[in-house]
Amino acid sequence: MRAVVVGAGIIGLTTGLALRDAGFEVLVCERAPEIRAAGASLGVWRNALAVYDRLGVGDRIAAIGKPSEMWFHDPTGRRIETPGFSEADHRYLLVHRAKLNDLLADAVGRDNIRLGARFTGYDEGPDGVVAHFADGSAEQADLLVGADGTYSVVRSQLVPGGEAREHVGHHAWRAVVPAGEAPLDSDVLVVGHRRARGGYARTHDGGAFWLLAQFDTPAMTGTVKDQCLEVARNLDDGGWNSTLARLIESTPDDRILHNQVMVVPPPRRWVSARVALAGDAAHAMSPHITAGATLGVEDAAVLAGRLTAHGDVPTALADYEAERVPHYREVARLSAAVEHSATPDEFAAAYVGFSHWMMTRERSASGVGARR
Q1: What is the domain count for the chain?
Q2: Are 115 and 34 in contact (CB under 8 A)?
Q3: Are residues 33 and 133 in the same domain?
Q4: What are 187-236's pLDDT values in tens digits?
Q5: What CA dihedral angle connects 120, 321, 278 and 214, to 10 degrees?
Q6: From CA 48, how far away is CA 347, in angstroms rounded?
Q7: In the chain, which ranges are E strands?
Q8: Which of residues 262, 286, 318 is at a domain's end?
């Protein structure tokens, strides 16, 4: 059995690794000329770490990450407690995206990755699928996986009219400050005024990662740094959070990533007989729950598990879709509860409620199966 995975981001590479574990010959195709990652750092929650453990790379990922906890403060600096939930519901691993991508590429095998391969479409038949590329080449496979992100070309053919759209008014800013430039002795995350939130965290190598986001963002003026400082004022009643402003001030404008947040409306289908979507290609959502990568890692595990269980690709893909659609319906409901929280305390409670559900719900069929 042969699989072509479109996209060599974290989810595409994880999917390639999971499918290899399930016994597939895998080719991961990436349009960029090199393995790279958009963004700075990301949180990987324990359900995704469990997948990586089963795939044999958990220890290596732990070595490039920093154990962290997702506790929120209000604008006065008060840490918001979450009665009824345990410390484990707040814990995650903070990992640099580029380092994780490189590690996963090594695990998949560089010989199994084709760079500079811009996917343009596919032809599907009863016995397989052919992936086409801009240089005129083609790849025959039993399975095609679209893990090509928010602007997925695979999704555009599988689900016409399912283009990504703006999450109107939702903007995000973030950056990594190298080790030695801004030492920190704590991690701080704040839910502030005017629907703003953000903060900073220490990275595994002694650097710092800071981020800001705002719903219903007003018209922004000035440089990107000016914008960040304006948003940060909503997170600092009384001057207790001056470290955030210091981190922003120390970051050159060209190292600050600013994004209009985009979302993918729930597609009417995830699969055909030979084609499947995974990760942001299927469910790109607002990053306020900081779980997009973790959820996509689970997609890879569920897909590989269904293929191992069934052997027959069309049956496995239908089962994968039947599990994922209601799962993400609940993800969307819980995510909306976080977004529409009226106070910092409600935000923190809804957030930990989501993370607890995500990490503890039954996953008996989502593990990566034994090799075939």
Answers
A1: 2
A2: yes
A3: yes
A4: 999 999 999 999 998 888 888 889 999 999 999 899 999 999 999 999 99
A5: 110
A6: 23
A7: 2-6, 25-29, 41-45, 65-69, 91-96, 113-114, 119-125, 128-133, 138-141, 143-146, 165-177, 188-191, 196-202, 208-214, 257-263, 275-277
A8: 262
